[in-house]
Design brief:
single chain; 83 residues; mainly alpha; 77% helix; 0% strand
Amino acid sequence: MTFDLANIIGLIGSGLMVGAFAYSNMARTLNFVLFNLLNLIGALLLIASLTVHFNMASMALEVVWALIAVVSLWKALRKGRRI
């Protein structure tokens, strides 16, 4: 594996998603906007990385993950939850 820009972007995306997961397990009160925003940005960064180093299974997972994050973010914002 080379550390080209696509891999660096993918690693940042992975870090955001792992950070969101850790936050959801450690926070006393979960901020749904923050949690879903971290997941969405992470998934989008991984999708960008996968356009260079394509893997069908990973791309499918990230697209679904991003869609879930968008819907959940929309619901959280509609309920008036803010960052």
